UniProtKB/TrEMBL annotation:
It comes from Ancylobacter defluvii. The chain crosses the membrane at residues 55-77, 89-116, 136-156, 163-181, 213-231, 260-280, 300-329, 341-361. It is a multi-pass membrane protein. This is ABC transporter permease. It is found in: Cell membrane. One of its GO terms (cellular component) is plasma membrane. Keywords: Cell membrane, Membrane, Transmembrane, Transmembrane helix. GO terms for molecular function: transmembrane transporter activity. The keyword Signal does not apply. The keyword Cell membrane applies.
Length: 366
């Protein structure tokens, strides 16, 4: 048998320390430290706005309402006027939702207004002139909107063309098709009401707490809630932001960027078709000349609402607030007796300030 004492082990005490353990005992246990400069108040504001993109439009909206209520007086804050503003921004809000989806992907769609008007003409011509049942004509209009979006999507994803150039071209194409199919003729509201009242449904007034709204306003809120859920609670929404922020990194992570982009353009076309339904309800008639400013108004609402034209940043709530800002300023300036020319001037200033502010906020992540 082996003698335990001769082996150098101590059975009654702790085991002998090995050589590598003796080296570890002499190691430096200090942790690396980095000097972090304290943030200035302006930098804190910058980081807050970067983390909360809807903060600026919400503040601007609040200041606008407060300012015009002081300038104009009780007329601005009356329930009738406030409900009128909401009705006026319904179309801008719906088309702005479609534009937001495109802008998040670092694109821009100049054809949203033309798609909306073309779909309204298709719905009106089929239902009123050709006698197609209104619900079926409505579905055909939705299909046309989705088809127009698919054309944009194919040109952007397959041919790798810039979205700005693609949609500038399709804007002209869709507008020309609109004039050709409608023969530049307007379908009167009386004819629409007689043959297809379903198409005017979103323009039906409803009184709530003494204020008059339309079903179109509630439809806008429902659409906002649906798209907000998709963007914030689904994988598709996360993929959308990832593609807009860095398409190369998104593709390396396994996201099918082409499929995401194509789906976004199709969805935008369908939303524009829903905007066409709301447009018919708003004006009552079907006019090929309606919605002339829809493109600019949608971009205005998106940019003022805090979305970045460089992609990867934006929200549906911000777009809704942006549309309300446009409506509040135009309505308040009109009640103040300001000429329409200077109303557009003010909206242009708001756009430039919003883009400049976005550039400043983006420096946080630079």
């Amino acid at each position: 048998m082996t003698d335990v004492s001769s082996s150098g082990a101590n059975p009654s005490g702790p085991p002998a320390m090995q050589a590598f353990e003796q080296v570890l005992e002499k190691r430096d246990s200090r942790v690396a430290e980095f000097d972090v400069a304290p943030k200035s108040p302006l930098q804190r504001v910058q980081h807050f706005l970067h983390a909360n993109p809807t903060a600026v439009p919400a503040i601007v909206l609040l200041l606008g309402i407060t300012g015009f209520s002081l300038i104009v007086g009780g007329r601005f804050l009356s329930s009738f006027n406030l409900s009128l503003i909401i009705q006026q921004v319904t179309i801008i809000g719906i088309i702005g939702i479609a534009q937001t989806l495109i802008v998040i992907t670092a694109g821009i769609d100049l054809s949203v207004g033309a798609i909306m008007v073309l779909c309204s003409v298709v719905m009106g011509k089929l239902a009123v002139t050709m006698g197609v049942p209104a619900p079926l004509a409505f579905m055909m209009g939705i299909m046309v909107g989705g088809g127009c979006g698919a054309i944009n999507g194919v040109l952007v994803t397959r041919l790798r063309l810039p979205p700005f150039i693609v949609t500038l071209g399709t804007w002209s194409i869709f507008f020309a098709l609109n004039l050709w199919y409608s023969a530049s003729e307007t379908i009167r509201s009386q004819d629409v009401a007689k043959a297809a009242p379903f198409l005017q449904f979103l323009g039906t007034p409803v009184d709530v707490l003494g204020a008059r709204f339309t079903y179109g306003s509630f439809f806008l809120l429902g659409l906002v809630a649906l798209v907000w859920y998709v963007l914030n609670r689904t994988a598709f929404g996360r993929h959308l932001y990832a593609v807009g922020d860095d398409p190369a990194a998104a593709e390396l992570s396994g996201i099918r960027t082409r499929k995401v982009l194509f789906t976004v353009y199709v969805a935008a076309g369908v939303i524009c078709a829903l905007g066409a339904w709301a447009l018919i309800g708003r004006i009552g008639s079907v006019s090929p000349q309606a919605g002339q400013t829809a493109n600019l108004d949608s971009i205005t609402a998106v940019v003022i609402g805090g979305a970045s034209l460089f992609g990867g940043r934006g929200s549906i709530i911000g777009t809704l607030i942006g549309a309300l800002i446009v409506g509040v300023f135009r309505n308040g300036l009109a009640l103040s007796g300001v000429d329409v020319l200077w109303q557009e001037f003010t909206v242009g200033i708001l756009i430039i300030v919003a883009v400049a502010l976005d550039q400043w906020i983006r420096k946080v992540s630079a």
